[in-house]
Each structure stands twice: as C-alpha cells, then as structure tokens.
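Suppose you are handed only two things: the residues of a chain and a line of SMILES describing flavin-adenine dinucleotide. What would the bound structure be? This form records exactly that question and the answer produced for it, so the two can be stored side by side and reused later without any lookup.

QUESTION INPUTS
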Amino acid sequence: MEVLIIGAGIGGLTLGLMLHRAGIACRIAEAAPELKAVGVGINILPHASRELCALGLEDALSKVAVITREYCFFNRFGQYIYSEPAGRFAGYDVPQFSIHRGDLQMVLLDAFTARAGADKVTTGMKCTRVDYDSAQAVAYFEDVNGEPLPPQQANVVVSCEGIHSVLRQQLYPNEGQPKYSGINMWRGVTRWKPFMSGASMIRVGWHHPAKLLIYPIRNNIDAEGRQLVNWVCDIETPQYKARDWNRGGRLDDFLPAMANWHFDWLDVPEFIKSADAILEYPMVDQDPLPRWSFGRLTLLGDAAHPMYPRGANGAAQAILDCRALTDALKANANPVAALKAYEAKRLPETAKVVLANRSAPPDAILHEVYRRTGDKPFKSIDDVISREELIALSESYKRVAGYDKERLKTVG
Ligand SMILES: Cc1cc2nc3c(=O)[nH]c(=O)nc-3n(C[C@H](O)[C@H](O)[C@H](O)COP(=O)(O)OP(=O)(O)OC[C@H]3O[C@@H](n4cnc5c(N)ncnc54)[C@H](O)[C@@H]3O)c2cc1C
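ANSWER OUTPUT
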C-alpha cells in the first residue's frame, strides 16, 4: 500500500507523518519549486495540538512558537469585555501554540524528512489531473515550466493542495467562485515589545468600522526582547480581490478605520504602521461538498473544506482530517472503503465548522456586545452582558469546532 500525497502544506506534511507512524508507505509531491517559510500567523488549537504532540512534536513547536496563555476581548474603545485562559492554562492536557505558518511547516517538514527520508518529498511537481477507479489511481504532473513529468501510480491519492486545488476542480468543474462574506482582511506581522501577558490572543471591536485580532508568534526575536506579533484586521468592504495568500495590501485601505485606537495597552496605529509587510485576503469560503472520495482519490484540508480563516480552524481541521484518514486506512484493508469511511466521519464535522464560521464565529462575543451597546462605550460590562452569557458564547464555538474540554476527554 502506498499513498501519494499532493501538496506539502500543513495537511500534506501532517498526513505524511501520521501515515509513516502507522507503517503506511507514502510520498509527497509539491508544486512549489522549493519549500519556503511563507504566510503569517496560525493558532494550533488544543484538538490539533494534541495530534501534533502525539507525533512527538511538542518540543520542536515549543522552541519556535509562543504558547498561548489567554484569550482577551475588548470593544473598539479599548474597554475590557472578557478573558479566559487557553491551552494548558485552561486545563487542557496540551498547549495551544501561536505560530508563524512557515515555522509550523518547517517543523513538520523536518520531522517528516528525518523519519521517512528526504527523498519522500519532491518539489516542482504540480499535479494537473488524477485518473482513478476502484483498482488504482494515476496522477499526472507538470514541472515549474509547465512541461509534463512522468505519471505516478499509487494505491491512494490524497489532494492536500489547499484553496487552489486542481483536483477539487477536476471533481467539481462547475462549482463556481468562492462565496464572499462581505469582509475583507488585512494581515501582517510587527516586531513589538511584549504586552499584556506576552502570550495573549486579543480580539478588539467588530467589523464595522473594524475588528482586530492580535497575537505574538515568535519570542525574543532581537536583543531588545521583542516578539513577532501577528495581526489581522477585518472590515466590511463591498469590493475584494481574488484570494491569494501572498497578495500585498495598503495601509490607507484599512488603517483610517482604527485611527483613534490609542489604548493604554497598545497604540494600534503605531503598531500597525510598524508592520514588516501587509497582506490582503478576502474572507471567502465554499459550500460544503456532497462527497470527497472518488474511488482511490480523496480530498483533505482546505482542498476539501475551505472555510473563513477565522477561529484558527483552517490548520486544525486539516490536522484532524489527517488523523481520521490514517485511522481509516489502518482499519480497512480495502482503500476505497477506507476513503469512504474517512469522508463519512469528517465531511459532516467540517461542514458544521464551515457554517459556524459564517453564522456563529469564535468572536461572537464581540458581535453581541456591539449589538447590545449600539457600538457605544459602556459604563460597566455587567450592565451589557453577564459573565455566564459570555462563557456560553465562547463554549458554543468550541463545541462546534470540536475542542471543548468534555469532548477532548472522550476522544482517543
Ligand atoms: C503561501 C501560503 C500562505 C498561507 N498563509 C496563511 C496564514 O498566514 N494564515 C493562515 O491561517 N493560513 C495560511 N495559509 C493556509 C493554511 O496553511 C491552511 O488554511 C491550513 O493550514 C490547511 O492546510 P492545507 O494543507 O489544506 O493547505 P496549505 O497549507 O495551503 O497547503 C497546500 C499545499 O499544496 C501545494 N499545492 C497546491 N496545488 C498543488 C498541485 N496542484 N500540485 C502539487 N502541490 C500543490 C501548495 O503549494 C501548498 O504547499 C497559507 C497557505 C499558503 C499556501
């Protein structure tokens, strides 16, 4: 049995590590000419962190990431609404990591090549099509110049190609454009002195005029002890450009919405103006698909269930897919049945997260306070919303996304 994984992103590399641990042969074909540390921040929530720690990666991740201590919520006037601990600080048996996507990818790549062999990852191979039936799968590739490469046969092919999946398009040629939420996102990283706990994930305001998410992703990056701090600003915006993780953004398009955000814990305009680089990304997703598995071909991660990049679930759900697919391949001698079993488990679960991210996101607390106060400052948060209601809103998202503590206690 050999699994051919298409894409060496977060899902592809994690799947490689899990299959290798299970004794299932695999290799990875990646379109990029080389694997470089690209992207900005990602959070690894406890359910996903548990899987990575079980792969023996806790030490490697702890060296490069910030161990998230707490979530904090403020309105756009800088008034404190709510906070709660995260990861081990909240009683989970694993840490939550705030990490640069590139650092996460490199930790996974180093572990995979050390364990499975460097020859198991080949770059410069863009998959263009897969022929599949119940007996075999053959993947076709081209090199970085668009020249065809020899086809590759495998027992199973898994598309871990991310949001621009060619194989999803092959399976669903009439799917159409991604759905735009009406919210555009500007993202970046800033070198800044630690503030608040130095490991806080902070959410401020609501999409009109602006919502800001901030968390540090690297510690001690220079002699002054600064951190690399990730931020994402969401603004309701009618127009947007096609999704591209590397598209550059402009300060003038979003900073004016936060011009007065001079808080005692952070001067937001100064902080944003000091960013290394600014990226722009539309909050888009795609409707859940009716199926992912076709004979010996299946989809995983963003290729299977692109969702709004909010709530740190893009990476987490990809990692959970890897665990379910590996378990299914271990349990079923017939690969076609295994891919169906994987789909039966993960498709409904991820569909719920896609839909929750649209209607009841992890920052629903901020929306509720915005709605109840009419976007005005409050005298006391207790007059606006009770602590019990705040906790209920927070727990509700964790349950849908699958990382409430009760559930993690029962899942093996
Ligand atoms: C350049 C980049 C930057 C990103 N930045 C962020 C970020 O800052 N914050 C965030 O939350 N998420 C970011 N993401 C997305 C995030 O990694 C995913 O949402 C999540 O981790 C799920 O992982 P995935 O494996 O499904 O997809 P990805 O991690 O996107 O990996 C997909 C991989 O497949 C490769 N690939 C694509 N098509 C083909 C093909 N036809 N043949 C072979 N290989 C192919 C890609 O080059 C990539 O390496 C980024 C993704 C990319 C590719």
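WHAT STANDS OUT: The first helix runs from residue 10 to 21. Residues 6-12, 29-32, 38-40, 42, 101, 126-127, 160-162, 164, 166, 245-246, 301-303, 309, 314-315, 318 surround flavin-adenine dinucleotide (CB under 6 Å).
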